[in-house]
Specification:
The protein has about 140 residues and is an alpha+beta fold. Helix content is about 30%, strand content about 20%. A 5-stranded antiparallel beta sheet has the order 1-2-3-5-4, with helices on one face. This is Histidine triad protein. One of its GO terms (molecular function) is catalytic activity. It holds the Pfam family HIT.
Length: about 140
Protein backbone atom coordinates (compact mmCIF):
# COMPACT_ATOMS: atom_id res chain seq x y z
CA UNK A 1 0.00 0.00 0.00
CA UNK A 2 1.34 3.38 -1.04
CA UNK A 3 1.16 5.48 2.16
CA UNK A 4 1.30 2.73 4.76
CA UNK A 5 4.02 3.37 7.32
CA UNK A 6 4.42 -0.34 8.06
CA UNK A 7 4.75 -1.19 4.36
CA UNK A 8 7.46 1.47 4.18
CA UNK A 9 9.22 -0.05 7.19
CA UNK A 10 9.02 -3.55 5.65
CA UNK A 11 10.45 -2.16 2.38
CA UNK A 12 13.30 -0.42 4.27
CA UNK A 13 12.07 3.03 3.19
CA UNK A 14 11.78 4.02 6.86
CA UNK A 15 14.30 2.76 9.45
CA UNK A 16 13.26 0.41 12.21
CA UNK A 17 14.79 -1.66 14.98
CA UNK A 18 14.27 -5.06 13.34
CA UNK A 19 14.22 -8.09 15.61
CA UNK A 20 13.13 -10.76 13.11
CA UNK A 21 12.30 -11.12 9.43
CA UNK A 22 11.44 -13.95 7.08
CA UNK A 23 9.48 -14.23 3.84
CA UNK A 24 6.09 -13.75 5.58
CA UNK A 25 6.58 -11.39 8.52
CA UNK A 26 8.63 -8.50 9.79
CA UNK A 27 9.05 -7.89 13.53
CA UNK A 28 10.47 -4.70 14.98
CA UNK A 29 10.47 -2.65 18.16
CA UNK A 30 7.46 -0.40 18.64
CA UNK A 31 8.77 3.16 18.65
CA UNK A 32 6.67 3.91 21.76
CA UNK A 33 8.17 1.09 23.88
CA UNK A 34 5.28 0.76 26.32
CA UNK A 35 7.72 -1.51 28.14
CA UNK A 36 11.30 -2.49 27.31
CA UNK A 37 11.25 -4.89 24.34
CA UNK A 38 7.74 -3.99 23.11
CA UNK A 39 7.72 -5.60 19.65
CA UNK A 40 5.35 -5.42 16.68
CA UNK A 41 4.85 -8.42 14.42
CA UNK A 42 3.44 -7.49 11.01
CA UNK A 43 2.62 -9.57 7.97
CA UNK A 44 4.58 -8.48 4.90
CA UNK A 45 1.36 -8.76 2.92
CA UNK A 46 -0.66 -5.61 3.48
CA UNK A 47 -3.90 -6.39 5.26
CA UNK A 48 -5.70 -3.72 7.23
CA UNK A 49 -6.83 -5.90 10.12
CA UNK A 50 -7.67 -9.43 11.25
CA UNK A 51 -10.83 -9.39 9.14
CA UNK A 52 -8.72 -9.39 5.96
CA UNK A 53 -6.60 -12.45 6.87
CA UNK A 54 -7.14 -15.66 4.96
CA UNK A 55 -6.40 -18.99 6.64
CA UNK A 56 -2.91 -19.27 5.14
CA UNK A 57 -1.83 -15.80 6.22
CA UNK A 58 -3.22 -16.31 9.73
CA UNK A 59 -1.36 -19.60 10.00
CA UNK A 60 1.90 -18.05 8.83
CA UNK A 61 1.72 -14.99 11.08
CA UNK A 62 0.43 -16.56 14.27
CA UNK A 63 2.80 -19.55 14.00
CA UNK A 64 5.70 -17.14 14.47
CA UNK A 65 4.40 -15.38 17.59
CA UNK A 66 5.71 -17.97 20.10
CA UNK A 67 9.18 -17.94 18.50
CA UNK A 68 9.46 -14.16 18.87
CA UNK A 69 7.90 -14.23 22.36
CA UNK A 70 10.50 -16.77 23.50
CA UNK A 71 13.26 -14.58 22.05
CA UNK A 72 11.98 -11.60 24.06
CA UNK A 73 11.84 -13.74 27.20
CA UNK A 74 15.44 -14.90 26.69
CA UNK A 75 16.63 -11.36 25.94
CA UNK A 76 15.00 -10.00 29.10
CA UNK A 77 15.10 -12.73 31.78
CA UNK A 78 13.67 -10.29 34.31
CA UNK A 79 10.42 -10.30 32.31
CA UNK A 80 7.56 -11.78 34.34
CA UNK A 81 4.84 -11.99 31.69
CA UNK A 82 3.83 -10.97 28.18
CA UNK A 83 0.71 -9.39 26.75
CA UNK A 84 -0.18 -10.22 23.15
CA UNK A 85 -2.51 -7.60 21.70
CA UNK A 86 -4.10 -7.05 18.33
CA UNK A 87 -6.37 -4.02 17.86
CA UNK A 88 -8.79 -4.11 14.94
CA UNK A 89 -10.53 -1.02 13.61
CA UNK A 90 -10.51 2.47 15.06
CA UNK A 91 -12.98 1.88 17.89
CA UNK A 92 -10.70 -0.90 19.18
CA UNK A 93 -7.73 1.54 19.23
CA UNK A 94 -6.12 0.51 15.95
CA UNK A 95 -4.05 3.51 14.86
CA UNK A 96 -2.02 2.06 11.97
CA UNK A 97 -4.20 0.28 9.45
CA UNK A 98 -1.75 -2.45 8.55
CA UNK A 99 -2.44 -5.41 10.80
CA UNK A 100 0.06 -5.82 13.60
CA UNK A 101 0.40 -7.81 16.78
CA UNK A 102 1.90 -6.20 19.88
CA UNK A 103 4.15 -8.32 22.11
CA UNK A 104 4.41 -6.32 25.33
CA UNK A 105 6.78 -7.66 27.99
CA UNK A 106 5.61 -7.22 31.56
CA UNK A 107 8.09 -6.61 34.34
CA UNK A 108 5.91 -5.59 37.28
CA UNK A 109 2.44 -4.32 38.15
CA UNK A 110 3.92 -0.81 38.08
CA UNK A 111 5.21 -0.93 34.50
CA UNK A 112 2.66 1.62 33.22
CA UNK A 113 0.55 -0.81 31.21
CA UNK A 114 -2.85 -2.09 32.22
CA UNK A 115 -5.75 -3.97 30.77
CA UNK A 116 -8.84 -3.97 32.91
CA UNK A 117 -11.92 -5.86 31.77
CA UNK A 118 -14.06 -5.40 34.86
CA UNK A 119 -16.49 -8.02 36.13
CA UNK A 120 -19.50 -8.38 33.86
CA UNK A 121 -20.39 -11.88 35.02
CA UNK A 122 -24.04 -11.08 35.72
CA UNK A 123 -24.64 -8.66 32.86
CA UNK A 124 -26.32 -11.24 30.59
CA UNK A 125 -28.69 -14.10 31.33
CA UNK A 126 -27.88 -17.68 30.38
CA UNK A 127 -30.42 -17.41 27.56
CA UNK A 128 -28.73 -14.28 26.20
CA UNK A 129 -25.31 -15.90 26.37
CA UNK A 130 -26.62 -18.97 24.53
CA UNK A 131 -28.11 -16.67 21.89
CA UNK A 132 -24.74 -14.95 21.41
CA UNK A 133 -23.00 -18.32 21.10
CA UNK A 134 -25.57 -19.60 18.61
CA UNK A 135 -25.33 -16.45 16.47
CA UNK A 136 -21.55 -16.76 16.24
CA UNK A 137 -21.65 -20.53 15.72
CA UNK A 138 -23.97 -20.08 12.72
CA UNK A 139 -21.40 -17.83 11.04
CA UNK A 140 -18.28 -19.95 11.56
CA UNK A 141 -17.30 -21.57 8.29
Amino acid sequence: MENCIFCKIINQEIPSYKVYEDDKIYAFLDISQVTKGHTLVVPKQHVADIFEYDDDLASEVFARIPKIARAIEKAFPEMQGLNIMNNNKELAYQSVFHSHIHLIPRYSKEDDFSIHFGDHTNKYSQEELQGFADAIKEQVN
